[in-house]
Amino acid sequence: MKTRLACLLGAALLSSAFAAHAADKPKELSIGISTFLSGSASVFGVPARDAADILIADINAAGGIDGVQLKPSYIDEGGGGEKLLAEYRRLAEGGTRVMLSAISSGHCNIVAPVAEDLKVLNVLWDCGTEKALEGKKYKYVVRTQANATTEMVAQVLYLMKVKPDFKTLAIVNQDYAWGRDSRDIFLAALKKFKPDVKIVAEMFPKFGAADFSTEISRLQALKPDVILSTSWGGDLDNFVRQASQRNLFKNSTFVLSLAESSLERLGGSLPEGVYVGARGDHYFLHPETKDDAQHQAFIKKFHDKTGAYPIYSVYHMVQAIHGLKAGYEKAIKDNNGAWPTPEQVAAAMHHVDFKGFGRELKLQRADGQALEAQLFGVTKKSDKYPFKVLSDITIIPAELVTPGVEDTSMDWIANKLKPEVLNSDQIKVYKN
């Protein structure tokens, strides 16, 4: 009788403990998402929000994460850093413990330490700056796509593959941190492969500039073999349209590192033969996933909702949400099926592999930096679309162009990046 009572009491206690723990599972998971909903950057901030709406609706329709529905709250990064932080703190103080933030590199640099202070799981979902995580080992902050170093070093490899004999280069970048940092990384890597290249001009028009006549006139006089621009959004669109009107594309080969997001908007203004980057391993005509059923279903939903095709910010949002879901699922498994704390999810997200709509991404580093391959192509007319598409697509694995956890970008480029990487058989080219 004593033994039976002890067993019953133990079972009751276990049941009580389980019930108490189960009660900790929320009915919904609040997620704060910062993106540009106004200003020039809204051209890819709004599509990213639309992607989040689609993905979250699909996840919720399928039962959520372990039965928990996702509830997004959006913050407009167009209001500036101070307003972003105020809204960020307001959500955190209201109980939101998961954030996807941010697009702006400057905003990522300021939210990352705040997330650590507030003990909020923060996914850097789109910003490129390598400085956000380099030399740091945050507990609560991870990034689900590549950073500027991976992107720019891969861009150099691609340029050396497709146009190795150029002798002169000019740069036209936006005058703020991204424009100058991406210039520094690109040139440092280029010197490793082509030390005799001559940089004939470095121009940094004001961020948000509408008139590029001064820069174009100078480029027409210099006639560089290659013109590089890592600009994005309305600035890049305006530069391309004005350069096209003045026939600048006939004199030089253009390398536009972020122009995948501008292809549809530019339409006929962007000529054939321009080298374009996609800021990662994703493209709505990705040669490895263009026929994937899930990818095609997403493209259709996105096009039905927006009238446009997905661009890189859309795919970065996909990666962030898929990565977050993978992190929660791993944390739940590690927690013996119980709903995890933000700390447990953050820990799990330093040890997950997941997919967006490209190759698998690996998030297995102490610094929380994901490894993401890089896709490039050359613009070509299409019979199917009223804008240029990418042909002869090249995919460069992240492992070839990403510094280690203990490396700084410039030291890694100077001391560990070797010209022999150009001959790697891991670089895949899809001719079409």
UniProtKB/TrEMBL annotation:
<feature type="domain" description="Leucine-binding protein">
    <location>
        <begin position="29"/>
        <end position="372"/>
    </location>
</feature>
<dbReference type="InterPro" id="IPR028082">
    <property type="entry name" value="Peripla_BP_I"/>
</dbReference>
<dbReference type="InterPro" id="IPR051010">
    <property type="entry name" value="BCAA_transport"/>
</dbReference>
<dbReference type="Pfam" id="PF13458">
    <property type="entry name" value="Peripla_BP_6"/>
</dbReference>
<feature type="signal peptide">
    <location>
        <begin position="1"/>
        <end position="22"/>
    </location>
</feature>
<keyword id="KW-0029">Amino-acid transport</keyword>
<dbReference type="InterPro" id="IPR000709">
    <property type="entry name" value="Leu_Ile_Val-bd"/>
</dbReference>
<keyword id="KW-0732">Signal</keyword>
<dbReference type="GO" id="GO:0006865">
    <property type="term" value="P:amino acid transport"/>
</dbReference>
<keyword id="KW-0813">Transport</keyword>
<comment type="similarity">
    <text>Belongs to the leucine-binding protein family.</text>
</comment>
<dbReference type="InterPro" id="IPR028081">
    <property type="entry name" value="Leu-bd"/>
</dbReference>
<protein>
    <submittedName>
        <fullName>Branched-chain amino acid-binding protein</fullName>
    </submittedName>
</protein>
